[in-house]
Amino acid sequence: MDQSVRLLIALDVNSLDPDLKKLKINLSKAKNMEHRWVPRELWHIPLCQLGEMGQEKLQQIYPVIRSEIRKTSSLNLKLRGVWAYPSQERGRLLWIGVQYSKELRELQMGLVKELNLESEDYRPYLPIVRLKNFRDVSDLLSPFKNSEFGKIQIQKISLYEMTSGGAFPTYRKLNSFDLSESGTCDLSL
Q: Is 183 within the bounds of a domain?
């Protein structure tokens, strides 16, 4: 029997070091706001969800992924503001806004098209904090809406396995490879 996993393709962002001290302090002072920071080594900007996929299907899409990343050199993206998903009035995920550059748009749209995925409204974001329950975080985030976190150069794309288990899903990086290089990446699970 073929084992299935839920996968996503994302940009690696683990080298980023934004100044989030004030947000950490505000979160620690907030009453009844159970939360977890996404571990820095797993920071990523999601590009597309692959859903559940067995080993055989994964091996079939590998050449498609490799072909698409060859078209993209490193990305330079601006990071600005801290926001909440699905809304600030009912936030469950806090994220940093990411510039939707032409190069990022071409990479994301190319992957969606070539992998025959459903095209959805895409908005790049960097998840940083998960909340246990939906909360109004408007007051918490208002000081950070216009915060500038600088630019980050993205040079790697990764394949992640996501396991949902209650309020705090876990991510495991399966493989990474450099943009614009074919690489020899073993995508076995």
A: no
Inside any domain, residue 184:
no
Strand order, beta sheet including 148-154: 35-37, 125-135, 91-98, 75-85, 148-154
Helices (H), ranges, the chain: 21-29, 55-70, 102-114, 138-141
pTM for the full model?
A: 0.86
Which pLDDT tens digit goes with each residue over 41-73?
889 999 999 888 877 887 787 788 888 888 887
- Please check whether residue 90 lies inside any domain of the structure: yes
For the chain, how many structural domains are there in total?
1
Distance CA 15, CA 142 (A): 26
List the domain range (segments joined by +) for residue 53: 4-178
**Dist CA 66 CA 155 (whole Å):** 14
**Angle value at C-alpha 179, between 64 and 15, nearest 5 degrees:** 130
Q: In 10 A of CB 161, how many CB atoms?
A: 16
In a domain, 186, yes or no: no
